Amino acid sequence: MQAEQETIPFIQRVTAQQPVISIHHLYKSFGTNAVLIDLNFLLNKGENVAVLGKSGSGKSVMIKCIIGLLRPDSGEINVLGKEVTTLNQEELDRIRVRVGFLFQSNALYDSMTVRENLEFPLRRHWIQITPAESNEKVMDALTNVGLAHTVDMMPAELSGGMRKRIALARTLILNPDIMLYDEPTTGLDPITGREISQLMAELGEKYNTSSVIISHDMNCIRTTADRVVMLIDGRCYTEGKYEELKKSNDPNVKQFFE
Amino acid sequence: MVLSKTWQNFFRETGEMSRFTWRFFAHGFKPRYEFAEFFRQCFLIGYKSLPLIGLTGFILGLVLTLQLRPSLIDYGVESQLPAMVGIAIVREIGPVITALIFAGKIGSSIGAELGSMKVTEQIDAMEVSGTNPFKYLVVTRVLAATLMLPVLVILSDGISLYGSYLGVNIRGITSFNLFFKQVFDALSFSDLSPAFIKTFFFGFAVGMIGCYKGYNSQKGTEGVGRSANSAVVVSSLLIFIIDLVVVQVTDILGLN
C-alpha cells in the first residue's frame, strides 16, 4: 500500500530541509474584514511549527487556505511542490490525501462507528484494499492512540479526549506527509491536553510527519513545536524557538507566556 | 427602485437554491458514483418511511370513505363510492398527502443531519479527506428521495384503497373483487400517469430543499433546528406549487 502511494507521479518527493509548505504574500479577506495581510510562511520537511496568535488573527484561515477549504484573494501557497491555488478539484484531492487535518471539533462522523470512521478514508482512496488489510490498518491506528477497545463504539459514547485521539488516528491512517492541527487541545482538561500533546509528538516522530499546529496552549506548543510563528492582525509578527520567544521582552510576545 | 430586505432575501435565497440545483445536475452524474451510499439512502428514505406512510395512507382511505358515504347516500349514488374514492386517492390526495408526510419525515431529517454535519465540520472533514461531500451527501440523498417517493406513493395508494374497502364494509357489504373492479374501471391512463409523474418532482423537491437547507446551515446548533424547520416548510410549500403547475399542464394537455 505504501508503495502504491510512492508511485503517484503527481506529487514529487520532497527531500530533507526542503519546504513542504511555502506561503508567499498571502491575502485573504471576508467582505471588508482583511484577515490575512501579506502573510509569508515556511514549513520544512520533518519540522513542527506552532502558529500562535489571538483569536481572529487569521491562524485557522491560514491552514484552511493551505488545505484548499478557503480560496485566498491573492498570493502563493505551495504544498508538496504544487501550487494549491491553481489546482483543479482532482489534483487538490490528491494533495489532500497527503495532508492530514485535525479539526478543533474532531469532526468524527456521528452516524458511523469508530471502525467506520477510520475505514472511510481508507476505502475512499485505496479502493482495492481487502477487509483483512483494512481491519489491520484500523486496529494498528487505534492501538497507536491506545483505544483499540473502542473500535465498535459510536463517537457519542466517547469522552472528549477519546474523540480527539480517534480523530488523530483517522487523520494519520493514510500516512500523510503533513499534519495540520487546528487547536488540538482546546476544550480538553489540562491533563488530557498534555496527553494529547505528548501523543502528537510521539506520532509525529513515528509517522515522520511535518506539522503546523495552531494553538493557544503553551504546554502543547512547548511539547510539540520545533519553531513558533506568531501572527498579529493577519501578519507574521515574529518567529523563533519556544525558549527564545519566552525570553523576549516584546510586550506582544510576552503576554502569551505570562 | 429599492427592494425591501425581505424581497432581497427572497431573491438571494432563490438564486442560491437555483445554483445549488444546477450544481446537482452539473456534477451529479459524473463519476465517481456513490452507489453504496445511494442504496443505503434508498433503504433509509424508502424502506424506513414505509410504516408511517402506510399507516397514514390506511387512515386516509378509511376516513375519506366514512365521510363521503353519507353525502353519496343523500344523492342515492352510494354505489359510486369506490370509484369516487379511487379517483380522489390516486389522482390527488394520495400523492399530495404522502409527499407532505414524506417532507415532514425525510425533509427534516436530511436538513437536520446535514446541518449538524456542517456545524460540526464533518462536511469539511469529508472534503479534506479527498471525498466530494456534495456527491457523497447531496446527490445520493436527492436521487434516493426522487426515486423512493413514487414507490411509496404507489404503496400508500394501495393501502389507502384497502382502508377504503374496509370503510365500505363497516356499514355495508361489498366484496373485495367488486370494490377493486369498480375502482379500476373508473380509473384511466390519464388519471394515473400525471399523478405518478408528479411524485418524482415532489421527491426531488423534498430531497433538494432538505439538502440545501442542511448544507448551508449556519449559526451553530440553533441553525440546525432552523434548517430542519425551514426544510419542511419550504418543501411542503413547493409540493403545493408543483401540484398547481401539474394541474395546469395536464389541463392544457387535455388529461383532466
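qc> The mean pLDDT of chain B is 92.
qc> done
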